[in-house]
Amino acid sequence: MKFHFSEEEQEIISMVEDYAIKEVGPRAQEIDEEERFPIEAREGLAEMGMMGVYFPEEYGGAGMSYLTYIGVAEKLAEYCATTSIMMMASESLCAWPIFQYGTEEQKQKFLAPLCSGEKLGAFALTEPSAGTDAAMQKTVAADKGDHWLINGSKIFITNAQYADIFVFFAMTDKEKGTKGISAFIVEKGTPGFEVSGHEKKMGIRGSSTSELIFNDCKIPKENLLGELGKGFKIAMTTLDGGRVGVAAQAVGIAQGAINDALAYVKERVQFGKPIWKFQNTQFQLADMQAKVDAARLLLYRAAQAKQDGEPYSHLAAMAKLVCAETASDVTRRCVQLAGGYGYSRDYPFERHMRDAKITEIYEGTSEVQRMVISGWMGNK
Amino acid sequence: MGCKNVMVYVETAESKPVNVGLEMLTAAKEVAEKVTAVVIGAADAAATAIAYGADDAITVDAAEYNTEAYAAIVVELVKKYAPEMLFVGATPNGKDLGARVAAKLKAGCVTDVIGMKEADGKIVLTAPLYGGTIYSDVTVEGTVVAIIRGGAFKKAEEPDTAKEGTITAETVEIADLRAKIVNSVQEISESVNLEEAEIIVAGGRGVGSAENYELVKELASLLGGVVGATRPVIEEGWVSRAHQVGQSGKIVAPKLYIACGISGAAQHISGITGSDYIVAINKDEDAPIFEISNIGIVGNCVDALKIMIEEVKKMQA
Amino acid sequence: MEILVCIKQVPDDSVNIKMNPATNAPDLDIATPIVNAFDTYALEMATRLKEAIGDSTITVVSVGPDKAKDAIKTCLAVGASKGYVVKADATDTISTADALAKAVAKIEEAEGVKFDIIFCGKESTDCASGQVGTMLAEDLDVPVVTNLVDIEKIDAGISAKQETEEGYNIIEVAMPCVVTVTKPEYEPRYPTIKSKMAARKIPIGELEIGDVVAPAVTVVANAEPPKKAAGVKINEETLEESMAMALGMMRDAKVL
């Protein structure tokens, strides 16, 4: 068992940190305040090869380990949670299922441009009445012989307004329940497919979150992803990976909050000394750092298991549950440490707290994680 | 006296000595028995140099400034007159010239000298390191080329026009120049005299926008002062780089320096510590600029500028 | 074309260096070693020139300790394809320039090449003396153009855009030559995962150059600048009240 990145992995993580310090961190407040998509980072990360970190070079990826990707996601989130999810929604949730379940043609056509960052990806499962109960899909794909005809809508879709390639799910056989769900790929600009609106959110406000509307949308037969009726499994395995990513995001957000808090308490003088000199401040931060490191180890365990091809659904669920709740707790305590300034939007603390909350919700709420974990325990 | 003979290269602009050229004469007089000024391509400036403290002066006729040519001239003069130290002002051209002369003479060279003293019969020069966060004292073996920062020394308050000194005209043959200036373009037409300004109103990134920066300009103009700026402001393009104050811009020493929305990076602070009175406005009450300010106002600098502009208008009415 | 870029590893200049009371020396441990910013501009300019004219090689060289290899490695991921570190007892500008000049001869001999252009940053952010490029040119007996913001290859050599106080000069000079670079309009590129991985495989040469000229400048003492005593900080209920108080004090001090 080892608890550190290899030298090679560390170099890539340091490289993205250098980029984040110079280009991502300084824009984090602005993209939050203006609810602006991080377009500069979307381009910058693409140029660096960060949009396809762990995919093989034959598909335009960088051929690095999955752990490197997780390290990169964590580092980005430390400086800007919005930027990290922009990368992950494309990489974990769109590129990965195409890599895992796609045909060679689909990989050449869709995976390669996603890895190079020329195109951005998105993942669409959630519907107004199919959230945690994902089996309640109302979007329908009808087999019309030479094409699929799609009708329905999806909500809360990350990257939607800026994505070029969407992996989405639809009912191909209503009688079969979850076994009647199939996965598809649709490209931006397909007639009958529309991206609508911008969800105003509590946190990760620069992230593009919108509704997808399919209105007699024809997509080619070859855009079925994986086998017919295997969509639910594809969605669930994709989300397993997504959860490791969100856990990384949560750890990053928490670490970013601690870093900001530490710098702040060393500067801030009250009662004639920096508040860092008070033991409450020291103990608060010590507690937080210990918790974040504990969560981080769960994250790396899950990532390592995924990388090694071992069963990891329960490990991903545990990592996400603990990392997300740690992030919420730590960011809330950092607001408290900074007092009035913690509550001020001129300081980053309240943003970290708002950003942290989403990690308890998307890619399966904390309650869903508990379901997965207890399900695994019951089956032991 | 720490040394017998100091040669001071007095840079000129439009045939008049630049400030640092005259300031160096004060510094030279403190350490040397004899101070010789050198002026190139501006013979009239020799008398001014003597009035400001040089014992005598050498003039050399030459075309417009060119580092290669001017360095060749100074090198010949140093060889002929053998001063123990050569002073050059730390202007952009002066830095080039000083380094080139030192290279030719294989002399020890110190850039941005801000202080000078004698210890154990040696001249000790002080120069900033690490963006002005450390001051380093150095000594030099052999001939010294000291590139002296503007504002570090004060020029004589009143020139002594009655003072006499020998002015010698020298001729130096210049070999063919290897680097040819084929075009010289003036992009910045405004004349910005930060070094001699008595009042400077400067803005930093905290001013927020080019539009808000107009308030900085308005206050400066109301007070009869000059507009200053930090490096980020120049990079944003709110004003031309002629306004830059700090380590990589101009070193200033006004009677009043008003810093608006400037947090106080070391690179900026090292350029303004010579100011007599610093007023800083910043929304961050822990901003480092407050540590060197006579008055620190915690608040929004744009609103503060508006209030100050109104008040100054009332005072002047 | 053969291009050499001289770089220096310096403490991160965004960190305020303080004296370490225990050693009575500047505490450089608090700042990460990085490539001098002006050297990164020089490398970027060299890389763009290489991309514009094609068929060129960029070599980087640094006089410094073993640790300077990290700085060279950084450069190998953003345009350079060969790197050397030079160990020398060089503590001032004259000795550093001498070490570089000797390194140039060694590299040219080892690689069987002649450098056409040698790029340097206009100054380092730690010492900011701005002398080494010029001194190196003198040692090599080649022309130098300082403070470049752009460069172009022309038949007669290079055409350099030199920043001046009021604007810029266009200067033409034959090769070989030395140029020093200031901040251009563009930023240095970031490495890519691929370039970073490729850089890992490039061995960094170590050069032994023997004795260099004795340094002429000796540091006798370092200190933090004398602190200017802070004055009053005003933070009244409203900005209007704060300003009224401040203006009153400025009037009393007769600065208004």
From TrEMBL, chain A:
SUPFAM superfamilies: Acyl-CoA dehydrogenase C-terminal domain-like, Acyl-CoA dehydrogenase NM domain-like. Residues 6-118 form the Acyl-CoA dehydrogenase/oxidase N-terminal domain. It comes from the Bacteria. GO terms for molecular function: acyl-CoA dehydrogenase activity; flavin adenine dinucleotide binding. Transmembrane segments: none annotated. Its cofactor is FAD. Belongs to the acyl-CoA dehydrogenase family. This is Butyryl-CoA dehydrogenase. The lineage of its organism: Bacteria, Bacillati, Bacillota, Clostridia, Lachnospirales.
UniProtKB/TrEMBL annotation, chain B:
Binds 1 FAD per dimer. This is Electron transfer flavoprotein alpha subunit apoprotein. Residues 6-181 form the Electron transfer flavoprotein alpha/beta-subunit N-terminal domain. SUPFAM superfamilies: Adenine nucleotide alpha hydrolases-like (SSF52402), DHS-like NAD/FAD-binding domain (SSF52467). Its cofactor is FAD. FAD binds at residues 205, 230-231, 244-248, 261-268, 282. It comes from Frisingicoccus caecimuris. Belongs to the ETF alpha-subunit/FixB family. PANTHER family: ELECTRON TRANSFER FLAVOPROTEIN ALPHA, ELECTRON TRANSFER FLAVOPROTEIN SUBUNIT ALPHA, MITOCHONDRIAL. Keywords: FAD, Flavoprotein. One of its GO terms (biological process) is fatty acid beta-oxidation using acyl-CoA dehydrogenase. GO terms for molecular function: electron transfer activity; flavin adenine dinucleotide binding. Pfam families: ETF, ETF_alpha. InterPro entries: DHS-like_NAD/FAD-binding_dom, ETF_a/b_N, ETF_a/FixB, ETF_alpha_N, ETF_asu_C, Rossmann-like_a/b/a_fold. SMART domains: ETF.
UniProtKB/TrEMBL annotation, chain C:
InterPro entries: ETF_a/b_N, ETF_b, ETF_beta_N, Rossmann-like_a/b/a_fold. This is Electron transfer flavoprotein small subunit. One of its GO terms (molecular function) is electron transfer activity. PANTHER family: ELECTRON TRANSFER FLAVOPROTEIN BETA-SUBUNIT (PTHR21294), PROTEIN FIXA (PTHR21294:SF17). Residues 23-216 form the Electron transfer flavoprotein alpha/beta-subunit N-terminal domain. Pfam families: ETF. The lineage of its organism: Bacteria, Bacillati, Bacillota, Clostridia, Lachnospirales.
